[in-house]
Write a structure and sequence with these properties.
single chain; alpha/beta; about 270 residues; globular; Metallo-beta-lactamase, Chain A; about 25% strand
Length: about 270
C-alpha cells in the first residue's frame, strides 16, 4: 500500500496492544498548541453563497494528550518550516488561507518538556497539509488514519506519508487505548476518510475535536458545507453524527479553525484536565 509499513495484529484494536505500559487511568491532560495562524481570502469557500469575498482570520490547532499509557498527538498543523518565512506561506489561490507560524510545534513541545520520540501514538483528522505538516517529527509514533483516507491519491498520486512510518488503517471508529477515554470518530465528507476525536477528561468532561468536519461556528450552526468537500451529503451525515454524539456525551465541540473560540481557550503551557 504505497510502500507504507502497516501495523497488523490479529485481535489487537488499540494502542494498548502495542506498548508494554500497564493499564492506566485514561486521559490525564489535554494541551492545545498553536500550529498556525492565517487569513482566509474568501470565507465563502467554506460557506457557499455567504460572505462572498470577505476574509476571515483562521487558526490551526494541534493537540497533545497525556494518557496514562503515553503521549498522543492529534493533528500536526502547517509545517514548522513556515516559521522561517518572513511573509508566511501565500496560497496559489488568493481565496485560500495565507498561513504563518508564530510558534513551531517543536518549540512548544520543548517548552513542555516532551521529546518527539516520547510520543507513542498520533492521528490526523485528514491529509490536507495544514494538518499533516509535521507528521514526520514523530517517525516512531503509530499513526491512525482511516483506510479511505490512506488510499485517497495525493498530489501526483504520491504517498501521503513516509514509507517507514508505522500506520494503522481504520474502517470506522476506534477506541485507541481500550478504556473509552480517547476515541477516533469517523466523520467523512470533507475528505473521504476524515475523522474527529472524542476526548474524555476527568474534570473538564468530554470534548469533541472537530478536525475539518466543521470549520467555524456559523459553519456548524448553519450546517454549511464547503464547496470543495469530497462528499456533500456525507458531510451532513457526519455533522448529524457529531451532534448526536455531543448530546449523548454532554460534550463540548472544539472547532479547529475557529479563532474566536480558540481565543477563549487555554493554550499551552496551560492545559485541561
Amino acid at each position: 500500500m504505497h510502500g507504507v509499513f502497516r501495523f497488523l495484529a490479529v485481535g489487537c484494536l488499540s494502542l494498548a496492544c502495542t506498548t508494554a505500559l500497564p493499564q492506566g487511568k485514561g486521559v490525564e491532560r489535554l494541551y492545545i498548541l498553536n500550529c498556525g495562524e492565517g487569513v482566509a481570502g474568501d470565507i465563502s469557500r467554506w460557506s457557499p453563497g455567504v460572505n462572498v469575498g470577505k476574509s476571515m482570520d483562521f487558526v490551526d490547532n494541534c493537540y497533545l494528550i497525556k494518557h496514562a499509557q503515553g503521549w498522543f498527538v492529534w493533528d500536526t498543523g502547517v509545517t514548522d518550516a513556515i516559521a522561517a518565512m518572513p511573509n508566511g506561506l501565500a496560497p496559489a489561490d488568493p481565496r485560500a488561507t495565507h498561513w504563518r507560524r508564530p510558534k513551531t510545534l517543536a518549540s512548544q513541545l520543548e517548552q513542555l518538556g516532551v521529546k518527539p520520540q516520547e510520543v507513542k501514538g498520533m492521528a490526523v483528522s485528514h491529509t490536507h497539509p495544514d494538518h499533516t505538516g509535521n507528521v514526520e517529527m514523530f517517525p516512531q509514533a503509530m499513526l491512525y488514519v482511516q483506510k479511505a483516507e490512506y488510499e485517497w491519491p495525493g498530489a501526483n498520486k504520491a504517498p501521503r506519508f513516509e514509507a517507514e512510518h508505522p500506520v494503522t488503517t481504520l474502517e470506522g471508529d476506534r477506541d485507541i487505548f481500550g478504556d473509552g477515554s480517547l476515541t477516533i470518530v469517523s466523520t467523512p465528507g470533507h475528505t473521504p476518510g476524515h475523522q474527529s476525536l472524542l476526548v474524555k477528561l476527568p474534570k473538564t468532561g468530554a470534548v469533541l475535536l472537530s478536525g475539518d468536519a466543521v470549520h467555524f461556528k456559523s459553519n456548524w450552526e448553519n450546517r454549511g458545507v464547503p464547496a470543495n468537500n469530497t462528499d456533500q451529503e456525507g458531510t451532513r451525515r457526519s455533522m448529524q453524527k457529531m451532534a448526536d454524539l455531543l448530546e449523548k456525551e454532554k460534550a463540548q465541540l472544539w472547532i479547529n479553525h475557529d479563532k474566536a473560540q480558540r481565543d477563549g481557550l487555554k493554550m499551552a503551557p496551560g492545559y485541561y484536565e
